[in-house]
Design a protein that fits this description.
The protein is α+β, with helices and mostly antiparallel strands. Helix content is about 20%, strand content about 20%. Bound molecules: zinc ion.
């Protein structure tokens, strides 16, 4: 997790992550936003993929979401 822009954005209150250009993400309040440098990082922090922009989850990480 990082305060610096990474490749993915996370929404703290809902623990959701998605693409930086996701329209859901653009509406987030800045104080609720976090950034991840990889999908592994986001999942390791307990975040779940956004249903709107559907970040590509590598098959080996899918089991971690269940
Ligand atoms: Zn999204």
């Amino acid at each position: 997790m990082s305060e610096q822009p990474g490749v993915l954005a996370g929404w703290k209150p809902g623990k959701i992550f998605g693409r930086l250009d996701c329209e859901s993400g653009i509406r987030m309040k800045p104080e609720n936003r976090v950034f991840f440098h990889s999908i592994e990082d986001a999942i390791a922090q307990g975040y779940r993929p956004c249903k709107k922009c559907k970040p590509d989850i590598p098959a080996e990480l899918l089991s971690l979401l269940r």
